[in-house]
Design a protein that fits this description.
Helices cover 3% and strands 52% of the residues. With 190 residues, it is mainly beta. Belongs to the IL-1 family.
Length: 190
Amino acid sequence: RVKMSAEEILMCAVKLGKNFCLYFDELECDALCKEKTLHRVLRNVNSQLLVVRPDLDVAAFEDVTDQEMQSGKGMHFSIHCYKTTTPLAGMPVAFSVQVEDKSYYMCCERERGEMIVRFKEGEVPKEINGESNIIFFKRTFTSCCSKAFKFEYSMEQGMFLAFEEEGCLRKLTLKKLSKDEVDETMKISL
């Protein structure tokens, strides 16, 4: 005899049919379906805002003036939240941003053996079947810091969005993190 919790299997019986067959309704598929969209700016531990500059092929955390923030070019993000059948992994999200009159979505690609964060022109899909290079799992940064988050790349466990100092830039990147480690470069406030 195996015990199962309600979190493990979600089924609602509808009716008992011919030959005593039991029929179910509202079974969830493995596809991710967009549930809601949040509109936020993303801040790092230094209170800098993430700014996307597609013309320069860069996304970096920068000090932004109030006037620049009002114009909002490349810094007001849409965080697309998806329904999931595996809530323990975290809330699946995708990011997009408007720059000028174009929409860009965040994705990850392997280049020369290294994972790179990119912003490509286009829209985030309403439904995703299987794996996707645009999905990140949103989790609280630490149990005592519920207003800040870390975002794990869905296709590579232990890889998180972070910033990395590159000259005078704090460039958006993916960074490997061991299970018990706390890394402030991965702390993102919405």
